[in-house]
Amino acid sequence: MATRLYRSLVQAELKSMEEKLAEIRSELAPGSTFKNKGKRLRPTLFLLVNKYTRFINGNKRAAGASEIAIAAAIELIHEASLIHDDIVDRSEMRRGLPTFNFAYGDAMAILVGDYLFTRSTSIFLEQADKVSDLRIVSKFIDLAIRTVRGEINQLHQLLFLEPNQERISLEAYLDIISAKTAVFFGACCEAGAVLAGGRNELVNNFFDFGLNLGIQFQIVDDLLDVVGSEKKVGKSLRQNMREKTITLPFIIAYNHHRDNPVMRKLISGADLTARESNQVYRWMSIPSVVQETREYMNRYTVLSQQALSRMPQCIYRLALEDYLAFVTARDF
User: Fold this and answer.
1) Domain count, the chain
2) Is residue 331 part of a domain?
3) Which of the chain's termini has less CB crowding within 10 Å, N or C?
4) How far apart are CA 25 and CA 71, in angstroms?
């Protein structure tokens, strides 16, 4: 299969990043590292935006040690968040392999996740030799805070709302996925542009691009949980229902079946039987619900495309358009 444009333009940098990640993992005991290698979407986005900004500014130099180190730190944050997510969700499979917590237990998973978060912060600080670099450090510390807050707010919906309180809210859903997922994509774009000396207008435009891309990314993920296959997606599906996580397909299905006893039982916080759970998934997977979910997804795709359209055209903008197309169509 041919390498996509977006990946071909940062292939050398990603190779250097993998070497940096291997060096960091060697600091830990053998067998205590994260083996489930993913698509490296977030560091790839950071590198593409960084190269775009340098190209527009007339700086043709290759990415240096600082850019490679920050790309590695971004991937460490992502890996740490996946480890913690899998603990909370009690997931057993990710990327076609056993999750870290399933293989090594929650205690080891918590410690390794904490180490990766902390190690990523130390990398950012090591690279901070000017004010713009400190802005990047501040952005990713804020990202970590917002990510954890998003997880807490999501769990709060499950654990602390009274049975008669409204759990179904599109606004709350968007707030949670923005904090948990979308802000990370926005931060990757912002960091790439800032590190390359981008002007504020360009930096802000890239943040908007990444934020809307991230919202779209999470909606795709939530839809794949309903209509995807575990073999293609590479992780345990139907986790959202097991954990009573409110997703967009569920919100849409709920609006069509809110008076059904099964829905009322689920909203009350009670556990569903396997038969009842399958019924809810059938409601979530009917064509009209899938189509409405896709329409929401397309809105954020368009917002991302509009952000890119405001930027000068070059090979790296074409690569970012290719990246957006890949994220939109993945694994359907």
Assistant:
1) 1
2) no
3) N
4) 15
